[in-house]
Amino acid sequence: GIQVEQSPPDLILQEGANSTLRCNFSDSVNNLQWFHQNPWGQLINLFYIPSGTKQNGRLSATTVATERYSLLYISSSQTTDSGVYFCAVGSYNTDKLIFGTGTRLQVFP
Amino acid sequence: DTGVSQDPRHKITKRGQNVTFRCDPISEHNRLYWYRQTLGQGPEFLTYFQNEAQLEKSRLLSDRFSAERPKGSFSTLEIQRTEQGDSAMYLCASSPPTGTDEQYFGPGTRLTVT
């Protein structure tokens, strides 16, 4: 099955800094989603981005499907950005999502 | 649009007991998914329904696990004879019939088996 790798596993930032999270996947995908998991465990949808570039406020994402990676950019980070960020992909022969192991982000004031 | 809801939010049970969780998808979403997440890991797929049909099951779904979606609306996940290894967050997600494969997740049910 598809393998999903996220890097870095941990990221510590000071408020106001920018960061880039990476997601590599091992095969063609027809679904790619970025999530933020809050301290209570809820997965918050950030982007549905199987290809191309999207922006939402301080967050943006780019997926280069031909090269099998996606990037999540966080600019001017805030303490409320802290949590775990997951990349999840779906392939053409199944509807399930396969998740990476996540990037744990801590933003300090 | 009220989002995906799950009940209960927390469940503590003794080993050997049966438990049942409920998931209500977003209205008009015909696809429903169950995932399990253990500490420090990403969610792992358990099973998937399209309307009332269960179309895919993971090998993680042992014989003690059963999921139903009898009328194509809400779904239940039952675990029989719970074991300590079943302790996890159980997440439900739904997606619409057309236009996008984006999945929307509920708040989860945290199960603790003592």
Per-chain topology:
The complex is a heterodimer of chains A (109) and B (114).
Chain A: E1 4-7, E2 10-14, E3 19-25, E4 31-37, E5 43-48, E6 52-56, E7 59-64, E8 69-74, E9 83-90, E10 98-99, E11 103-108
Chain B: E1 5-7, E2 10-13, E3 19-24, E4 31-37, E5 44-50, E6 53-57, E7 65-68, E8 75-79, E9 88-95, E10 104-105, E11 109-113
Parallel strand pairs in B: 2-11
Antiparallel strand pairs in B: 1-3, 3-8, 4-5, 4-9, 5-6, 7-8, 9-10, 9-11
How would you characterize the overall build of this protein?
The complex is a heterodimer of chains A (109) and B (114). Chain A contains no helices and eleven strands. In chain A, a hairpin with a 7-residue loop joins strand 9 and strand 10. Chain A is mainly β and 109 residues long. Chain B is mainly beta and 114 residues long. Chain B is built from no helices and eleven strands. In chain B, strands 2, 4, 5, 6, 9, 10 and 11 form a seven-stranded mixed beta sheet that branches. In chain B, strands 1-3-8-7 form a four-stranded antiparallel beta sheet, with no helix packed on it. Chain B is globular, with a radius of gyration of 13 Å.
Q: What is the string of helix and strand elements of chain B?
A: EEEEEEEEEEE
Query: H/E element string of chain A?
Result: EEEEEEEEEEE
Largest sheet of chain B, described in full? 7 strands, mixed
Could you say which structural class the secondary elements and strand pairing of chain B correspond to? Answer: mainly beta
